[in-house]
Design a protein that fits this description.
single chain; 22% strand; 324 residues; 10 strands; 6-stranded mixed beta sheet; two-stranded antiparallel sheet; alpha+beta; 11 helices
């Protein structure tokens, strides 16, 4: 049997028919139609995707996709066709916001999503065997808060306090707080730094976001993600940047409005095909509501307990192995 036949012979056609039926079923007033964008992306990859052999395994993939999610009235798009560990997602986001890169900080909060990329074996495989175990290099949060600053590999922080790099996030906060500048078209935060890519355990997948204010106070975020692990990573990315938009709206006295998600290579690993077939048979529930219970003085000071997710109803967990 050829590699292409491995995919072609998988019995997902009936599932695709069911998802079309679910689309008709859900396409009614007061039901969650936004999550159908995600399920239809899965369907498109299964139907039209190309078989590829990549760095870390076989995938089916397409190139290019987009989704839009309303954040109005506190809505937060935590997917419901499987249970999403939103507190884990939020802990990682707050770790990014603080500019931290030591995986032990996450492990101490029972968050293990970076473990596969922070083991000694993995770091040696990418030429970073001299890093202490758990130190991840100048990944997302470091670029958000210390873009291009020299890195201290002993503790995962900036090498020279007098040369802290560019604090992209604080710049955006300052612009959003100022009515004269909040509608700027330059409110961009990037994690993609070609000067330091080889010093990161993993180059950024979600590489750039842009914030936009319309009508004086309506805050939206657009994300571009170069590489999208649709079954496992994408639900976290959707939730994480929606949380971030809600948080910046709260912190800067704005109203959350919309999250727009642009995707490059959208793929499903071969190991996840059986799991994803189960998910596309499910009908989405309504998204929950987010309340951020207090406004902190400093963006670094928010904690998980400041966030209250109300009425999150979901289908059961679908366990999938993370591909490092």
């Amino acid at each position: 049997m050829s590699e292409h036949e491995e995919f072609k012979n998988l019995p997902y056609i009936n599932n695709l028919i069911k998802i079309k039926n679910n689309t008709k079923q859900c396409n009614k007033p007061n039901q969650n139609n936004e999550e159908l964008q995600y399920l239809n992306l899965i369907k498109t990859i299964l139907e039209d995707g190309f078989l590829e052999e990549g760095r870390n395994g076989k995938t089916k993939s397409i190139f290019g996709g987009s989704m839009r999610f309303s954040l109005k009235n506190g809505k937060v798009p935590i997917l419901t066709t499987k249970k999403v560990a939103w507190k884990t997602c939020l802990k990682e986001l707050l770790w990014f916001i603080r500019g931290e890169t030591d995986n032990k900080i996450l492990q101490n909060q029972n968050v293990h999503i970076w473990d596969g990329n922070s083991s000694k074996d993995f770091m040696e495989s990418v030429g970073l065997g001299h890093y202490p175990e758990g130190i991840l290099g100048q990944i997302y949060g470091y670029q958000w808060r210390h873009f291009n600053a020299q890195y201290d590999v002993t503790n995962g922080s900036i090498l020279d306090e007098n040369k802290p790099g560019i604090d992209q996030l604080q710049y955006i906060i300052d612009q959003l707080k100022n009515p004269a500048t909040r509608n700027s078209r330059r409110l961009i935060m990037t994690a993609w730094n070609p000067c330091q890519l080889n010093e990161m355990v993993l180059p950024p997948c979600h590489v750039m976001c842009q914030f936009n204010v319309h009508d004086g106070n309506k805050l939206s975020c657009a994300l571009y993600q170069r590489s999208v692990d649709v079954p496992l990573g994408s639900p976290f990315n959707i939730a994480s940047y929606s949380f971030l938009t809600h948080l910046l709206a709260k912190h800067c006295d704005l109203e959350p409005y919309e999250f727009i998600y642009f995707m490059g290579n959208c793929h499903i690993y071969q190991e996840h095909l059986d799991s994803i077939k189960e998910q596309i048979e499910r009908t989405p529930y309504e998204f929950p509501i987010l309340e951020i219970e207090r406004k902190r003085e400093n963006i670094n000071d928010y904690v998980v307990d400041d966030f209250k997710v109300i009425d999150y109803i979901s289908h059961d967990v679908i366990k999938m192995k993370m591909i490092a």
